[in-house]
Amino acid sequence: MRQRDELVSLVRLDGVTKSVTLPDDSTLEILRGISLEVSAGDHVSIVGRSGSGKSTLLNILGMLDAPTTGTVAFEDAEVGRMRSGRLDRLRGENVGFVFQQFNLLPGRTALDNVMMPLGHAKGRLFWNRRRIAADMLERVGLGHRIEQIADRLSGGEQQRVAIARALVRRPVLILADEPTGALDIDTGASVMGLLDEVATETDAALVTITHDLHVAARARRHYRLDAGRLETADLSRAFEASTLAASVPSSGAVVPAEAVAS
Ligand SMILES: Nc1ncnc2c1ncn2[C@@H]1O[C@H](COP(=O)(O)OP(=O)(O)OP(=O)(O)O)[C@@H](O)[C@H]1O
Ligand SMILES: [Mg+2]
């Protein structure tokens, strides 16, 4: 086990804000002053209401989007100062993204999709990319569907292809946006088990956005995004609230993760 002072900082956000200008010229402040450090081996969960800025935050953590103000550092190097070629390489080699909408290449097979991140790899990873991708598809339970065209797969199957694609290059930072959103409880649990397992094997950091309290609870550090601000979340209180709601027949509502008490 690593000691605290040995933790390797992977990605660090300092005072990050994100604003966009809307068509009526007004400004929407999506993120307001977020500071967060994610280290190797960390497992962080983020919950929050729809529209609270979770995907925006994940895109900034994964260096796909730049903040309006504040800084992002990857392994202590400030990302805002990097040329786009270096940034693309850094992202490709180090970050595995499970997108909320999967973002699979349409018209291509599951195998093509999972092989894609290995297309720019070097040496064995490149030459063995077909077998490595097929093995990862096997691990997400899709060994029998590798030649199927991605957009003809079911939603849950597409989600598992997206997860295999995120993990295939053994990234040190795994960013998962609602990775179980399209899965039934059992498949969701096994996919989260796989994300944990691969992250542990490579001492990778895993950041999971989720509406599911059980998924959030698998992480070691829990956060909630509320109106663009990040705060630590008390999941035990959220579980209590949801049990309470379930025991009151007239409520009829399931309390989602974003109801985490602030
Ligand atoms: N480029 C953009 N232009 C305008 N509005 C944007 C842009 N990007 C995000 N937003 C808005 O910012 C808010 C946060 O979006 P985001 O996708 O980060 O939310 P989220 O927390 O991931 O929501 P969900 O749980 O529904 O996925 C939303 O209201 C969205 O419409
Ligand atoms: Mg989102």
Please describe the topology of this protein.
Layout: E1 9-21, E2 27-39, E3 43-48, H1 54-61, E4 69-74, E5 77-78, H2 84-94, E6 95-98, H3 110-115, H4 123-127, H5 129-139, H6 155-167, E7 173-177, H7 185-202, E8 205-209, H8 213-217, E9 221-226, E10 229-232, H9 235-247
Parallel strand pairs: 3-8, 3-9, 6-7, 7-8
Antiparallel strand pairs: 1-2, 1-4, 4-5, 9-10
The protein binds adenosine-5'-triphosphate (ATP) and magnesium ion.
Short summary:
By secondary structure, the chain is of the alpha/beta class. 34% of the residues lie in helices and 24% in strands.
| Helicity range | 25-40%
Give a short account of the largest sheet: 6 strands, mixed
Kindly state the mean pLDDT as a whole number? 90
Write the CATH fold name: Rossmann fold
Strand-and-helix sequence, N→C? EEEHEEHEHHHHEHEHEEH
What would CATH call the class? Alpha Beta
Number of separate helices: 9
Q: What bound compounds does this protein have?
A: adenosine-5'-triphosphate, magnesium ion
CATH architecture: 3-Layer(aba) Sandwich
**Strand order, largest beta sheet:** 6-7-8-3-9-10
The assigned structural class equals alpha/beta
Organism: Microbacterium natoriense
Domain ABC transporter: 11-252
Family: Belongs to the ABC transporter superfamily.
Keywords: ATP-binding, Lipoprotein, Nucleotide-binding, Transport
